[in-house]
Amino acid sequence: MLRRLICTSVLGAVIVLLAGCGGSSKGGSCATPASCPCTNCGGNSTTVTYTFSGSPATAVATKIGSGAWTSASLESNTLSLIIPDGTTDYSVAYVCQQTDERIYLASTLDGTSIPVSCLGISGSTGLATVQVNASAIPNAYWILIYGIESQIFAEQTTAGTQSLSGQLAAGTSDVAVMIQDKNSNVLAVKILRSQTIPGALNGGNAVVFTTSDETVETAASFENIPAGFYVPGTLVNFITAGGLRLGISDWVGGTSTYLSMPSNAFQTGDVQLLNPEAIDSNSIYHSVSLENYATSGGPQTFTFPAQWTYAGPTAAALPSFDYTYAGYSGLSQVTPDAVLTYTDSKSNSTDLIVVVATESYQGSANSLEIPDLSALTGFPAAPASGESVNWNADIEAGGNGIASPYTGDIQEVSNGGKYTVP
Fold it and tell me: Which of 247, 278, 303 is the last residue before a domain boundary?
């Protein structure tokens, strides 16, 4: 779950939030440290920078140590917190599109440069044009063009070379040209590096597909599948060094193959994210999964963690979760997260709350409580009495923490369900 929420982004200018000592907040937003003094903080404060990509966050709040939550603001999509000497824990919360609330409970030990994202386009768009010839790809039906930040335009294939045009994020970024069959299965992919938008892609030259650009059904084996679980397949994403994230396959392939990018697509810094999952035959909410990062294709062996059985939290508007689980003994970066999804009965909007707590923040604690930020401007209301709530709780292990989203293999165990708020 954590890696699905965190994406790379571009640094911007900084607005400084200066905190008081002993974990208490003092002052709020400041343009410079001198304008918001910190008494008895010492000279070893730590600055942590959160950089936002995608659509602008509609609300932001912070908390230093055990202090109170306070509203904050962004400048050029960047937030910096000064954590005073003697304090390590802090929290950051933000809202995307008014209804999507994300909360990070973290520590200075997790790193000082944290990328986060709201889906959507962070800046202006421009017209991209491209010529594509997919005649060499059997069963080609769709041509799709993907840009940074999940933009896409598409046309049905025809014989020979055809011209396409559509809006992509303005600037210089990687672009993918994808060929699908009529059932939306990915048949072939070409990555166009460092394209300038608006403008003609590939230097104005036609993108001509050959059989070497076809995706590859690649052998996979799965070990330690819990009793009563089944493997629907492996989700595959390709992430370029330039930050383009491209979905290659959903959970398809079963227990013998996964769909890999062609070998000629890989360049230094690219990774193929393989996400196999085993699901309880009696409950789609109960699963074990992996996130493996590969720098090339080839046969894979996936070993699942032991299952985690959890009946769920006591029903409440904002419940507390219990993450007691012995399956990750000896592993580092054990990270719990919780997700609530509910329909606001007043606005009829679908609201989402995600809470992620790092190992450095949690320490030996097994519980995680979702904070109530509804009193702060721009944060959604907690679910009301009588509303139905979908919950999901995950525990991840491995990887390199929230500061390094695309390195290190990850294990995950998950449970979920529904309850009605009392």
Answer: 303
Residue 89: the pLDDT is: 97
Average pLDDT, the chain: 87
Closest CA to 228 of 276, 289, 279, 275: 279
Domain stops at, among 213, 241, 267: 213
Q: For the stretch 253-273, what's the b/e string if a residue is b when 16 or more beta carbons lie within 10 angstroms of its beta carbon?
A: bebebbbbbbeebbeeebbbb
Same domain, 112 and 152: no
- Which candidate, 315, 340, 353, places its Cα nearest to that of 390? 340
Domain that holds residue 267: 216-303
Q: Pairing state of beta strands 142-147 and 113-118?
A: unpaired
Buried b (16+ CB within 10 A) or exposed e, 306-345: ebbebebbeeebbbebbbebeebeeeebbbbbbbbbbebe
pTM of the model: 0.85
pLDDT bracket for residue 406 (50, 70, 90): low
Query: For residue 251, which of 296, 294, 212, 284 has the smallest C-alpha distance?
Result: 284
Q: Tell me how far apart the alpha carbons of residues 182 and 189 are, in angstroms, rounded to a whole number.
A: 16
Cβ atoms 52, 74 nearer than 8 A: yes
Q: Give bridge partners of residue 389 from the DSSP assignment.
A: 342, 419
Query: Can you tell me the distance from the alpha carbon of 157 to that of 182, in angstroms, rounded to the nearest whole number?
Result: 10
Is 367 or 17 the better-scoring residue by pLDDT?
Answer: 367
> Residue for token digits 């937030």?
79
Q: Rounded to whole angstroms, how far apart are CA atoms 337 and 356?
A: 4
Q: Are residues 67 and 131 in the same domain?
A: no
Average pLDDT for residues 147-173, to the nearest whole number? 92
- Please tell me the predicted confidence (pLDDT) of residue 253: 64
The amino acid present at 212, given as its one-letter code, is S
Rounded mean pLDDT, 309-322: 97
Which residue shows structure tokens 């979702």? 370
Listed residue (358, 367, 308, 293) closest to 332, CA to CA: 358
415's CB contacts (< 8 A; 6+ apart) are 285, 286, 308, 309, 310, 312, 392, 393
Which residues 6+ apart lie within 8 Å of 235 measured at CB?
A: 247, 249, 250, 251, 274, 275, 276, 277
**Average confidence (pLDDT) over 360-378:** 95
Same domain, residue pair 417 and 361: yes
- Is 65 in the same domain as 164? no
